[in-house]
From TrEMBL:
<dbReference type="GO" id="GO:0005886">
    <property type="term" value="C:plasma membrane"/>
</dbReference>
<dbReference type="InterPro" id="IPR017871">
    <property type="entry name" value="ABC_transporter-like_CS"/>
</dbReference>
<keyword id="KW-0813">Transport</keyword>
<feature type="transmembrane region" description="Helical">
    <location>
        <begin position="303"/>
        <end position="321"/>
    </location>
</feature>
<dbReference type="InterPro" id="IPR036640">
    <property type="entry name" value="ABC1_TM_sf"/>
</dbReference>
<dbReference type="InterPro" id="IPR003439">
    <property type="entry name" value="ABC_transporter-like_ATP-bd"/>
</dbReference>
<dbReference type="Pfam" id="PF00664">
    <property type="entry name" value="ABC_membrane"/>
</dbReference>
<feature type="domain" description="ABC transporter">
    <location>
        <begin position="363"/>
        <end position="597"/>
    </location>
</feature>
<protein>
    <submittedName>
        <fullName>ATP-binding cassette, subfamily B</fullName>
    </submittedName>
</protein>
<keyword id="KW-0812">Transmembrane</keyword>
<dbReference type="GO" id="GO:0016887">
    <property type="term" value="F:ATP hydrolysis activity"/>
</dbReference>
<keyword id="KW-1133">Transmembrane helix</keyword>
<dbReference type="InterPro" id="IPR003593">
    <property type="entry name" value="AAA+_ATPase"/>
</dbReference>
<feature type="transmembrane region" description="Helical">
    <location>
        <begin position="267"/>
        <end position="291"/>
    </location>
</feature>
<feature type="transmembrane region" description="Helical">
    <location>
        <begin position="81"/>
        <end position="99"/>
    </location>
</feature>
<dbReference type="GO" id="GO:0005524">
    <property type="term" value="F:ATP binding"/>
</dbReference>
<keyword id="KW-0067">ATP-binding</keyword>
Length: 602
């Protein structure tokens, strides 16, 4: 198999993992969506009234035309025709009025439901624990919030009420046809399933063609995105021709699916039309024969009225077919949305959780064993104690368990065995918010949110004034940082802080942590290399940040380790050495070897 086929295959696999776009109607799900309309019961009930009126109005309009033809026109009664036309005009005006309000109310109801659903989903997402976020792809979370909710919105705003109007219209048209001529009505009833079957088959085929089309489009966009992001690698490895060939294949693939969609539409739409024409021919023959009978109870006007009603009976079949398709899409979206809403957080604080008032910052691990997957522990029987105000440096090879320890201190995960105590309280029994309020975290990636420098620093203390922010920056020895920024505190940091240098980003993260004045500080030192002047600055700021609080530092700088009260050396999830820097050097073990490498690299 050549490379083009391999890539296409792997992309196909990726796309095959796309979630199902449709699922059968499920009244449990529909009921659940409808519970979101409860706060808007008045609006929803008014909407149902307009739906009822709409289903009556269209047949009534048609009936009025037939009545005028059959009555005043047949009698050549000019006055009657004028009154009839006026009556029709009034009825038609009221029809438009009701249609306007039906659409408006449906629009408002759909928007309200979607807005509430989005908020419920966002609040729920924030309550989920770290493991869920690690296991779930961001794209999936975003599509819950966007395309799935959008499908539900269309379901509420359009599908539900349009279908009700159409079904109502069909029922009333059926009654009218029965009244005009029950035999002709039976003929119409016989044709309805044929039309429904053709329509259903058409939609199924179209839906499968459209799915192929969507998937091929996803392959194109995925390849395009990769090509743009990875252009440097492409050019460096002179892969342009190869990539162009792969892209060409995908583009041809997409084109063939597009043709298939058009071919399906081109085949079925005339077929549906033909079906209607056949129906008209049959109705003309049978209806005409019945009217022409000398003792026929059916007048010409009745036949005209019957034609109109038959049209009102058949046109909803096509519309309902379309809506049915949309409804199945909404079902798939709703099912995914609700299954996310029903995902419980991995754990919750006990009801009587201890609220930590003012912590001293004493932390103790007692025989802690932990694994992201319980069957595969990454920390084994870890025990240590950190006195208030101490700095604990975590050192070890990559994957040795340093970040896992800070994940446990921060109560992002719970251990499988052993206990973690803060101020003597088992973390399991501690109220998480009260812990997090007194905890500061500075991560390696320096995550900044979209907004200004001020917004980002205030994240640590929403009530902080500008004076407090400036004071914190001064304490960190980086007051001049603001002068170097184009708009001072007002400077936009761009997406993820993209408009700032990595040193500036780190300082802002330090300020964000310091302004909250945490009792426990967690710091994953950045490994990115920065110039020595910035490095010295960060070190000074770091010393300020660490002073007076219990700190856990995943240390990458020798100076941080030297100043630590305790260095914990990890190897394959176990603490293999512990002590101060000098003591560990004397041991001449794992740490001494790591140190040698540090010094050589440094
Ligand atoms: N979210 C996760 N899900 C599953 N396994 C994980 C997760 N995070 C880390 N691990 C695994 O746990 C082990 C310890 O990882 P950890 O991140 O604690 O190491 P580390 O010492 O901080 O490494 P580094 O210095 O590279 O950041 C590794 O084997 C890693 O593959």
């Amino acid at each position: 198999m050549n490379q083009v086929q391999t890539l296409s295959r792997s992309l196909t696999k990726h796309v095959e993992r796309l979630e199902d776009r449709q699922r059968p109607l499920d009244f449990r799900l529909i009921g659940r969506i409808l519970t979101f309309t409860r706060p808007y019961a008045v609006q929803r009930n008014l909407l149902l009234v307009t739906v009822l009126l709409r289903s009556i109005q269209l047949p009534a309009l048609t009936w009025a035309v037939a009545a005028v033809i059959n009555g005043p026109i047949a009698r050549k009664d000019v006055n009657g025709v004028m009154w009839g036309a006026a009556g029709f005009a009034v009825l038609s005006l009221s029809t438009q009025f009701v249609m306007h309000y039906r659409q408006l109310l449906a629009l408002q109801l759909g928007e309200s439901v979607v807005c509430d659903l989005r908020q419920a989903l966002f609040a729920h997402l924030q309550s989920l624990r770290m493991r869920w976020f690690h296991q779930t792809r961001v794209g999936r979370v975003i599509s819950r919030m966007t395309s799935d909710i959008e499908d539900v919105r269309i379901g509420v705003q359009e599908v539900l009420f349009v279908t009700l109007v159409q079904v109502g219209q069909m029922l009333i048209a059926s009654c009218a046809m029965l009244w005009y001529d029950w035999m002709l009505f039976l003929m119409v009833l016989g044709l309805a399933p044929v039309l429904w079957l053709i329509n259903h088959h058409f939609h199924r085929r179209l839906s499968s063609d459209l799915r192929n089309l969507r998937e091929s489009f996803s392959r194109i966009t995925a390849t395009l995105a990769e090509s743009v992001v990875g252009i440097r690698v492409t050019q460096a490895f002179v892969r342009q021709d190869e990539n162009a060939r792969i892209f060409g294949d995908l583009a041809e693939d997409h084109s063939s699916y597009n043709t298939a969609v058009l071919r399906t539409q081109g085949l079925f739409l005339p077929l549906l039309d033909l079906n209607s024409q056949v129906f008209i021919v049959l109705l003309l023959i049978v209806g005409g024969y019945r009217v022409l009978q000398p003792d026929s109870p059916m007048a010409v006007g009745d036949l005209v009225g019957f034609f109109f009603m038959a049209n009102l009976f058949f046109s909803p079949i096509l519309i309902i077919g379309n809506q049915y398709n949309q409804a199945m899409t909404a079902m798939a979206g709703a099912e995914r949305l609700f299954s996310l809403l029903d995902t419980p957080p991995e754990w919750s604080d006990p009801k009587d959780a201890i609220v930590l008032e003012r912590m001293t910052g004493q932390v103790e691990f007692r025989h802690v064993t932990f694994g992201y997957d319980a069957a595969r522990p990454v920390l084994h029987d870890v025990s240590f104690s950190a006195a208030p105000g101490q700095t604990i440096a975590l050192v070890g090879h990559t994957g040795s368990g340093k970040s896992s320890i800070i994940n446990l201190v921060a109560k992002f995960y719970l251990p499988q065995q052993g206990e973690i105590l803060v101020d003597g309280h088992d973390l399991l029994k501690v109220n998480s918010d009260s812990l997090h309020h007194q905890m500061g975290i500075v991560l390696q990636q320096n995550f900044l949110f979209y907004g200004t420098v001020r917004d980002n620093i205030r994240f640590g203390k929403p009530s902080a004034t500008d004076a407090e922010i400036v004071e914190v920056l001064d304490r960190l020895g980086c007051g001049d940082l603001l002068n170097n920024l184009p708009d001072g505190l007002e400077t936009q940091v761009g997406e993820r802080g993209g408009t700032l240098s990595s040193g500036q980003r780190q300082l802002i993260c330090f300020a964000r942590a310091l302004i909250a004045n945490p009792r426990i500080l967690i710091l994953d030192e950045a490994t990115s290399s920065i110039d020595s002047a910035t490095e010295a600055r960060l070190q000074k700021a770091l010393n300020v940040l660490l002073t007076g609080r219990t700190s856990f530092v995943v240390a990458h700088r020798l100076s941080t380790i030297r100043h630590a009260d305790q260095v914990l050396v990890l190897d394959h999830g176990r603490i293999v050495e512990r002590g101060r820097h000098d003591e560990l050097l004397e041991l001449d073990g794992v740490y001494a070897r790591l140190h040698k490498r540090f010094v050589q690299q440094g």
